[in-house]
Amino acid sequence: MSFPRTLGELRHSPFSEPRLRDRRVKDELRENLVARLRSKEPVFPGIVGYDDTVVPQIVNAILSRHNFILLGLRGQAKSRILRALTGLLDPHLPYIAGCEIHDSPYSPICRRCRDEIAQHGDQTQIAYLTPEERYVEKLATPDVTIADLIGDIDPIKAARGGHELSSELTVHYGLLPRANRGIFAINELPDLAGKIQVGLFNIMQEGDVQIKGYPVRLPLDVAMVFSANPEDYTARGKIITPLKDRIGSEVRTHYPATVEEGITITAQEAWTRRDGYQLHLPKYVQEVIERVAFAAREDKKIDKRSGVSQRLPISATENVISNAERRAIANEEKTVVPRISDIYAALPAITGKLELEYEGEMKGADHVSRELIRLAIAKTFDEYFSGVDMRQIVQWFDLGGEIQVADSAGSRDVLAHIKTIQGLTEKLSALGVSAREPVESQVSAAEFILEGLHAHKRIGRNEERVFTAGEKQPKKPEQRTFDREEPSRGRRPYN
User: Fold this and answer.
1) Residue 171: strand pairing partners
2) Domain edges within the chain
3) Among residues 79, 149, 231, 407, which is most buried (max CB within 10 A)?
4) Closest CA to 451 of 342, 347, 354
5) In angstroms, what CA-CA distances link 171 with 98, 157, 203?
């Protein structure tokens, strides 16, 4: 499709319809959202777990033409949602070619564009913006200045062009004017200095900005959105009250509500497509990885105010696959099947995601992470084997049996030893694994059962990953109770 390239051609095109010509960006977002709702299309494709909570609130904010803020802990898809707003913008938007603030050809607001139209008329050149080009994002930091956001007077432009400093032609535009006719997003808003937050008042209330102390005012057309971590309010800064009052809607995000939702997000975001090797990622391994994050969010040794990002299971999954891939390469295996031992090998992807409380710092990040993995294994094991009789396997170890399942050991060698454990291979069917499955899958499933028994302290395991008999719990010494009629030993009875 060819688009009009001059103002004259534009006036005789569908872009000149009054509905499109005078429409502001918030109305554009609203109209396209209504069309998407009517067609039953997903509002934010790829966003999982928010259909009944966060998404309806964002929809209400857009329908209300509000500027809004997303409040939530790290790793809750806040930035991804803000960037997904571009899906509600028109595919193409005409503007005067060369304009820094993408001025409308029908009602330009900057001096340069008005002069351009006055000089060239219908021959004024037209360019077009894509939805991605209409999204401007800024990560708030304490060193951000008003000039960065709003703009400043450039004395070099004034000197070269022979203009007065108060002229609009001397303005160096900041990020906010450059987002004109689009979406302007600020991430981690509380990190923005209070006096800089004040600079946003005019655009949110009056719809214009003032450049420094000169009478240069620009009536911008911008939809403003923000994100913030509630922890920031006390840790690094806060959103000043007058600015909060001008933000139309406050939407709170959250972590996945169920393990299945978490698995879906992780599978969507993790890099699992490896070249050269066939990958089979068992469901129970995915569940253990996801439950590590769920357990961490409930653990008292971890700072709940900081949160546990969904990036933890994503990064852990990638490391788990990589460790299994390394084993497959070393042992010349064709199929990559992660084991539970690979999750322990993925500790570097877990420890850095945890902010520990005092008790956790005393034990150390590695110790806390290993406890979380063990707890996740135990819960996942119960999902598959609750009520299943495992006494035959435990008895084999109690009678002196032991087996080493190193994370680098080849599957064929390990399987030969696993088959000597009485009753173990018969239990693999509960995991959907049979003798016809690849040896890598059989070893992975068998190791999961052994790890589950170890997590429940029914068998033992040392650091060399040698599974042995569990430690027998010593019997509690018999406690003697005294009746009122029986005097305490060593004491004289009362008369």
Assistant:
1) 153
2) 7-252, 259-469
3) 149
4) 342
5) 15, 8, 17
